[in-house]
Amino acid sequence: xxxxxxxxxxxxxxxxxxxxxxxxxxxxxxxxxxxxxxxxxxxxxxxxxxxxxxxxxxxxxxxxxxxxxxxxxxxxxxxxxxxxxxxxxxxxxxxxxxxxxxxxxxxxxxxxxxxx
Amino acid sequence: xxxxxxxxxxxxxxxxxxxxxxxxxxxxxxxxxxxxxxxxxxxxxxxxxxxxxxxxxxxxxxxxxxxxxxxxxxxxxxxxxxxxxxxxxxxxxxxxxxxxxxxxxxxxxxxx
Lengths: 116, 112
What we know:
By secondary structure, chain A is mostly beta strands.
């Protein structure tokens, strides 16, 4: 299947610092990527849709100044959690659509963020 | 009522059992139906997807979609302890739609 690489898998940071998470499509070009957040024993919550070369589309209730998304190339999207606080601690997962016509999403391995 | 309903479990079965995982939905516009497997602390892995109604088989896994009942199933034959994971159903409409609606996942435990 398609490979989506996400890095880092785990990050621990102090409150007030910024954290960048990278999402790469390894064997295909992804004009659209997605960022999700997942709380324990909960389903995936879509945060934003990342579009190559244009601004991301954020879901209602997601602070775009807090969660900065950059999709500068067809294989890379980044999510920066700015001035992170303990309530931002969560599991963040990216996904990308393989351009085969069915528009099926493939996911990265996720990043576990812990803000102290 | 949520658009997609999925029993969170946990569902505990002995090794070798046939497992049935299910989701119901309310949006008749859904046309693509996906099943993802998610191990603890990992991202979801696509298992299968089906377009419209019918069955699809891949090894020990069979996906069924009954659009008339708005009900989808994933069957796992000869279940193994390595199948222990959370199984998420997801579904979306056709055309230009590409953001699926996810169920909350069913936790499956296959014990030796």
